[in-house]
Amino acid sequence: MPRIPRSPASQGPVTLAMVARRAGVSPQTVSNALNSPDLLRPETLERVREAVDEMGYRPSRAAQTLRTRSSKLIGYGIQPSQPGTAAPIMDRFLHALSQAADEAGYRILLFASPPGEPALEGYEELLGQHEVDGFVLSGTARHDPRQAWLAKRGVPFVGFGRMWSGRPVGDWVDVDGASGTDAAVEHLVALGHRRIAFLGWPRGSDVGDDRAAGWQRAMRRHGLPTRARRAQSVDDIEAAHAAVEPLLDAGATAVVAASDTLAMGCYQALRERGAAPGRDIAVVGFDDSPAAALLSPALSSIEQPLEAVGRECLRLLLARMSDSGAPPERVLLAPSLVVRDSVPGTAPGPDGPAAG
User: Fold this and answer.
1) Tens digit of each residue's pLDDT (9 = 90 or more) over 175-213
2) What CA–CA distance (Å, rounded) separates 279 from 260?
3) What is the C-alpha separation between 280 and 270, in angstroms, rounded?
4) In sequence order, what are the residues at sequence separation of 6 or more whose Cβ sits closer than 8 angstroms to the Cβ of residue 141?
5) Judging by DSSP bridges, how do beta strands 134-138 and 282-287 pair with one another?
6) Where do the domains of the chain lie, and which CATH numbers do they carry?
7) CB 313 within 8 A of CB 173
8) What number of other Cβ atoms are within 10 A of residue 140's Cβ?
9) Residue limits of the HTH lacI-type domain (predicted)?
10) Rounded to whole angstroms, how far apart are CA atoms 231 and 243?
């Protein structure tokens, strides 16, 4: 078949009828080629698809919505990053989620969510306008109102983060923070460290408590004391700087932090003492934010598999859209320890490995 020239831009948007005329078929045949290709003979389908490609035809989203009652849009509420924290890491997750959605024929519709506790306003507005087919939630918390609210209305959703309350509401994908901090302690113990401290968030933070539990589990497994080895801070560099001081005073040779932000506070405290991360005290962060590799010395950190989280969230949401009665599915992914200069090859001082 000869190559079909594109319609000049002056003719306006290419329509389904124009494609039908060019391919020598009816408009219904073009519609079938786009939506029910199995109804057509292979040679007819090939002719129509070539006309679609050559003319640059794009189906109307409005027409698709009327026909399928699907907007092909997935809502995601995005919160601003807080001052005093490390560079945000959610861009990696959002890129992976968007890419997976694109491959499935969907688009991610971002809307602003206020900082702090999850709120319903943006979700109510979008549903009121019938603009989305489902939602991806992040920042899930124990008293999060969104899951029950969406479930009551039959709106498909998936959470990046456990629902924590234990109630069987909704599908979720999460990162096993406890296994990450457990692995960090294992690595430090193998290097000879015995005084391994934990700098975490205030108790009651579900994600923070999960990360603290992994540190505590590994310490007990090796018979290492945890008393006076744990401190807490809000996720702020200056606050973490003050909170880590008692741990350093107590002789910690390594600090595992619940975030890269807290680890940066530890860096500041060490430098004020004339000490150096890595040389004098081993430091491990969590999240492997973009800033981790840029610090001097480069920060060892626990990397979340955010690309896999994004893909799994989209998979679960599409499955929920097609089968609303299926039992909830939960996916827990393991993070990995990225070792850099802030963790030297041996423990410093008297807690180093025995000779020979």
Assistant:
1) 999 999 999 999 999 999 999 999 999 998 899 999 999
2) 19
3) 9
4) 117, 118, 164, 206
5) unpaired
6) 9-59 (1.10.260.40), 73-175+306-335 (3.40.50.2300), 177-304+338-351 (3.40.50.2300)
7) yes
8) 21
9) 14-68
10) 6
What sign does the CA torsion over 289, 290, 291, 292 have? Answer: positive
Beta-bridge partners for 199: 231, 257
Residue 306 to residues 97, 122, 213, 325, 349, Cα–Cα distance (Å): 9, 24, 21, 28, 37
Q: What is the DSSP letter of 49?
A: H
Nearest C-alpha neighbor of 230 from the set 191, 164, 288, 181: 181
Measured in whole angstroms, the distance separating CA 282 from the mean position of its chain's CA atoms is 27
According to DSSP H, which parts of the chain are helical?
16-23, 27-35, 42-55, 61-68, 90-103, 121-128, 146-152, 177-190, 206-221, 237-243, 245-249, 260-272, 306-322
The CA angle 280-286-287, to the nearest 5 degrees, is: 135
Please give the residue that has the higher pLDDT: either 81 or 102.
102
Q: Is there a contact between 108 and 76 (Cβ–Cβ < 8 Å)?
A: yes
| Neighbour count for residue 223 (Cβ, 10 Å) | 7
State the pTM of this model.
0.76
Three-state DSSP state, 283: strand
DSSP conformation letters of 222-268: TT---TT-EEE--S-HHHHHHHTHHHHHTT-SEEEESSHHHHHHHHH
Q: Which residue has the tokens 């406890």?
A: 178
What is the rounded distance in angstroms from the CA atom of residue 138 to the CA atom of residue 346? 38
List beta partners, residue 171: 158
Cα separation, 182 vs 97, in Å, equals: 28
User: Tens digit of pLDDT for each residue in 335-355?
Assistant: 999 999 999 987 776 554 433
